Amino acid sequence: MKIIDTDVHPRWRSLEELGGYVPEPWRTKLLTRRIVHPHNGYPNPVATHRRDAVPPGGGQPGSDPDFVVEDLIERYGMEYAVLVGESAQLNISAMPNADAAAALATGYNDWLIHCWFSRDPRFLGSIFIATQDPQLAAAEIDRVGGHEQFVQVALGSGARAPYGQRIYHPIYEAAERHGLPIAIHPLNEGSLIFGAPTPVGYPSYYFEFHALATSALQTHLVSMIVEGVFAKFPNLRLVIVEGGVGWLPPLLWRLDKEWRSLRVEAPWVNRPPSEIVRDHVRLTTQPLDEPEDPAHLLALFDMFPADEILMFSSDYPHWDFDDPTRVLSGFPDETRRRIFAENARALYGL
Amino acid sequence: MASERIPVARLDEIPVGGVKIVQVAGKEIGIFRTPDGFSALKNVCPHRGAPLCQGEVTGTFAPSRPREYLWVRDGEILRCPWHAWEFDLHTGEALHVPGQRVAAYRVVVEGNSVMLCL
Prior knowledge:
The structure holds two protein chains of two kinds.
Chain A: E1 4-8, H1 15-19, H2 26-31, H3 65-74, E2 80-83, H4 87-90, H5 98-117, E3 123-128, H6 134-144, E4 150-156, H7 169-177, E5 182-185, H8 206-211, H9 214-226, H10 229-232, E6 238-240, H11 248-262, H12 273-280, E7 281-284, H13 294-302, H14 306-309, E8 310-311, H15 333-348
Parallel strand pairs in A: 1-2, 2-3, 3-4, 4-5, 5-6, 6-7, 7-8
Helix pairs in contact in A: 5-6, 6-7
Chain B: E1 5-10, E2 19-24, E3 27-34, E4 37-42, E5 56-61, E6 71-79, E7 86-88, E8 104-110, E9 113-117
């Protein structure tokens, strides 16, 4: 069975390894800790990474490209793995200094090109941008967007404003121009300059924070629909990463119902939101929901165009990893074929 | 059915708190040494098939009142390296997922030899 993994997390071996690709004066500032990647406010209380994913040569899980090839791509016979940054990288958009953030974005993208893409053509990746200055972000997309192994532009779901709003539109203009989807990855909400991770403030526990990870993703999705991002940028696609699946069907029902009543407020939303989502939005599957009764998951997939919208992801090497040989069993072959590879192939043009 | 005793380690090979993962009869089994003896569990998590025996041997926080932390069973709990399910290191029972368990095997020590009973 063909597999394209749409969410794999690389990390730098050391700050020095990343720093080598960051332009001055920011390289020196980074390596002397005068600037830092903001910390995620909610560290995992158990473990962020799988203990069994530590590379044989040592170092952190996900820091050795050759071992990722062995332990993930070859082990499962994958065609491609799409690399997406971890929290530290998502959090560049949480830095108070917009220029520092933009420099770290540049460094990260060059690090990815030199340390990962060059190691194996099966690595694809996400252009990281900092959202404080959307013009600089667009320039970064223009700088590296032509590299054939970059297949999307990625952002964290942590933000100062919902992603449909016009201040972000230069990012979407650049991404659309390069034929690159926008990908939003959760679990950096509430960092540094962002608002609180929930609408009613800061939860106390990672358990809450993780359970509520879909909240900001939904906010950004609804914002992009209602602000008309997909009308303004008709070739733009959105990937919602690491949000799981179960929240989507009821949201589509709710959005379509709202649309029938409230369409006049945003008349550029010229068709039901669920249709916009079908055409423009993809979800990566991990962490795939686990209802008590497996039949309920099958039923859930019937409630929306799952065969078109979903793309398999593992989240390697994180703790809540989905093993491709263990998820989606019991689903029809055609559904599996499309979710495990063909939807990603169509989206990313592979 | 008579069980077989298969030597899997020398007594001094596994430190207390440590594990040796062995291949026996087509199965991967983790041989654990605890302060009061040995245990053996199949190296496949019943949740999603993770290599359970590569997880951390630890204790747990017992169910408690709000804001109360009761650290118990240090060295008796195996935590899965993937989704962090907790298992009793001796019986293989999942602590908080009713009905879920990993296969557990008896271990006996004969002289300098640690023997797995299958």
